[in-house]
Amino acid sequence: MPIELAQHLVLGAVAYAERLGFSPHPDFEAARGHLGVLTDPCMFRFGRNGRPMYVAGPYDDHRAVIEALRRKLGPGGFAVAA
After folding, report:
1. Helix (H), strand (E) at residue 66
2. Distance between start and end Cα atoms, the chain
3. Beta-strand (E) ranges in 17-67?
């Protein structure tokens, strides 16, 4: 993958999550420097149908994530994968 594409995918996803109130894993800081800086607008659109979509991971505290999304976006402001 070209570094420019990785910048758009990874740094774009981090920026999107930060706008929703989520921080990257603490270990991400060690890798951030390898990606450089995203200077152009992100070429990816995140979410589904214009709304954030939460897909629970195996180690997520899904109740805490959903509550944080409700506080930030309201009860209908995001989707949850079944």
Report:
1. helix 62-73
2. 31
3. 53-54
User: Does residue 66 sit in the same domain as residue 41?
Assistant: no
CB of 77 closer than 8 Å to CB of 69 = yes
Boundaries of domain holding 32? 1-46
User: Looking at the DSSP assignment, which residues form a beta bridge with residue 59?
Assistant: none
pLDDT in tens, the chain (82 residues): 999 999 999 999 999 999 999 999 999 999 999 999 999 999 999 999 989 999 999 999 999 999 999 999 999 999 999 7
- Structural element, H or E, at residue 73: helix 62-73
Q: What is the pTM for the complete model shown?
A: 0.88
